């Protein structure tokens, strides 16, 4: 596709370096009016950096960004940027303000008298209602700090939708959403692009979604445009993945030094029993239990399994364990590992270098906090296994891309001998190629005797990797358990009440 006079924005020859690290090396990117444009690329390709440069959050070294009005006339940069709204990869909400106030934030320039405030609350309600009516009805006056990650994500999206922008940049907006919420978001986006001529730039690592919503794509790789505006249906999945520089065929994962824990799968002492009223699941070593559904139900189960909160609903029983885990510390000591779904707030240790982020769990499990000579080598091995390219293990995690930070959390538990590993969306933001490798690593950990409990909003990955899946409905109730023989996306969608 060639550049047309209907472009809302063009980016030409964009370059950006951080010190000696060259991130963007002449990116070309143009967005036409009324299209949903998928911006694709592996972890660290430069997508978020470009988005931040477009909004002015990060400065560029060189290149040209131009904005145009409906008649193709160029706008000034300030004028153009005022018509851009963004949902960043990590949430940017003010925790002490209410939902309505956060959504109205971009409008504060207009002045905020009482009348305006009421109108703003009404607008906030309307935009939230497009994604979730029930949530809109109850959340408007709650402080954002009291919301869950996925509720926060909806507020961010609602803010972008109600901002009156002509161009919305969505950097992995669906990473925290359930299938139903994603479907609702897509319906709204289709309506706004079709009727109002809104343009959307959509970043995601979920191929199925990308095909559902985008008409055209640009692919960047190592800071360069390798596909410049091509209709997405002209490219196969394999072609897209190859353009991103990723391997498609199943191939041997570079093995980390995974310790082979010997176990007896049939032994009752190694079995973990989880139960709530009417439901009892026995998890033998090597089980990979998928957990599907809206976050409320899974969160309660996970709290019980990690000792985070004393779940009244779930009891967790294992020989040598108390009936109820009292604290995360106790859970860790008993061999339960945990990867949080809230990477930014509960996962990454932002002020500590990469090596501390990667080695944290090992140090707790081994009871040693001293970074010995071998620790550096071990950390490098783990990073290599997950294809993390870092200039130095002593850099801070915020020098890594979002998906790469997620890999640090995974590295933390890779090969640590644990009885139980609880995963909340472990592949959130991880690119397609690396996801496959992570699935393989999780299978290896299960094969070495770890029980895996894995919550994901991406049903396809649960059905691909798990041996059983427990589904929760939208009210947080346990709706059923699927054995491998019964696996199908339709069944999961029905059980979780996620049908649109
Ligand atoms: N503040 C920084 N200092 C140094 N390097 C940085 C900084 N911010 C980003 N980078 C580097 O820039 C590159 C591009 O990062 P960016 O976040 O744009 O990737 P991305 O395409 O959004 O990846 P992801 O899919 O994981 O979100 C990465 O190699 C990252 O390490
Ligand atoms: Mg990013």
UniProtKB/TrEMBL annotation:
Q: Which organism is it from?
A: Rhizobium esperanzae
Q: Which Gene3D superfamilies match?
A: P-loop containing nucleotide triphosphate hydrolases
CDD domains per the UniProt record, alphabetical: ABC_Carb_Monos_I, ABC_Carb_Monos_II
SMART domains, per the entry = AAA
Any one Gene Ontology molecular-function term assigned to this protein's record: ATP hydrolysis activity
Q: What is the protein name stated in its UniProt record?
A: Ribose transport system ATP-binding protein
Q: Which Pfam families match?
A: ABC_tran
Q: Which InterPro entries match?
A: AAA+_ATPase, ABC_carbohydrate_import_ATPase, ABC_transporter-like_ATP-bd, P-loop_NTPase
> The ABC transporter domain covers which part of the protein?
9-247, 256-499
Key words of the record: ATP-binding, Membrane, Nucleotide-binding, Repeat, Sugar transport, Transport
- PROSITE patterns associated with the record: ABC_TRANSPORTER_2 (PS50893)
């Amino acid at each position: 596709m060639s550049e047309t006079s209907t472009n809302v924005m063009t980016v030409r020859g964009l370059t950006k370096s951080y010190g000696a690290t060259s991130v963007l090396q002449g990116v070309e990117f143009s967005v036409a009016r009324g299209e949903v444009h998928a911006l694709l690329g592996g972890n660290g390709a430069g997508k978020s950096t470009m988005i931040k440069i477009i909004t002015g959050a990060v400065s560029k070294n060189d290149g040209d960004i131009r904005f145009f009005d409906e008649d193709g006339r160029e706008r000034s940069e300030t004028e153009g940027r005022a018509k851009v709204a963004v949902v960043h990869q990590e949430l940017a909400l003010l925790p002490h303000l209410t939902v309505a106030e956060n959504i109205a934030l971009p409008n504060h320039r207009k002045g905020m008298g009482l009348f305006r405030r009421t109108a703003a609350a009404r607008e906030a309600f309307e935009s939230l209602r497009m994604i979730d009516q029930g949530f809109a009805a109850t959340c408007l006056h709650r402080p954002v700090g009291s919301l869950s990650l996925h509720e926060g994500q909806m507020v961010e999206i609602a803010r972008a939708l109600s901002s009156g922008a002509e161009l919305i940049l969505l950097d992995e907006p669906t990473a925290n959403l359930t299938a139903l919420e994603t479907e609702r978001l897509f319906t709204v986006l289709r309506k706004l692009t079709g009727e109002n001529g809104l343009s959307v730039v959509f970043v995601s690592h979920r191929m199925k979604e990308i095909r559902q919503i985008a008409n055209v794509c640009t692919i960047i790789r190592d800071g360069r445009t390798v596909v410049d505006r091509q209709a997405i249906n002209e490219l196969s999945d394999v072609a897209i993945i190859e353009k991103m520089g990723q391997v498609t065929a199943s191939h041997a994962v570079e093995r980390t030094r995974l310790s082979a824990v010997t176990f007896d799968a049939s032994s009752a002492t190694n079995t973990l029993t989880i139960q709530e009223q009417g439901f009892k699941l026995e998890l033998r070593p090597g089980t990979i239990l998928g957990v599907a559904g809206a976050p409320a139900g899974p969160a309660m189960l996970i709290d019980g399994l990690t000792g985070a909160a004393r779940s009244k609903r779930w009891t967790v029983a294992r020989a040598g364990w108390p009936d109820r885990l009292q604290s995360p510390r106790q859970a860790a000591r008993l061999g339960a590992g945990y990867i949080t779904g809230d990477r930014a707030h509960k996962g990454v240790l932002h002020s500590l270098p990469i090596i501390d982020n990667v080695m944290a769990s090992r140090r707790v499990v081994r009871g040693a906090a001293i970074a010995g000579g071998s620790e550096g080598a071990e950390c490098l091995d783990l990073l290599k296994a997950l294809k993390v390219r870092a200039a130095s293990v002593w850099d801070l995690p915020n020098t890594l891309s979002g998906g790469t930070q997620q890999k640090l959390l995974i590295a933390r538990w890779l090969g640590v001998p644990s009885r139980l590993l609880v995963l909340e969306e472990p592949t959130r933001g991880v690119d397609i190629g690396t996801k496959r490798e992570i699935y393989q690593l999780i299978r290896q950990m299960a094969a070495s005797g770890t029980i895996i409990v894995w919550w994901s909003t991406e049903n396809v990955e649960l059905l691909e990797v798990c041996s059983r899946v427990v589904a929760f409905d939208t009210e947080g109730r346990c709706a059923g358990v699927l054995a491998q023989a019964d696996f199908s996306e339709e069944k999961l969608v029905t059980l979780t009440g996620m049908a649109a």
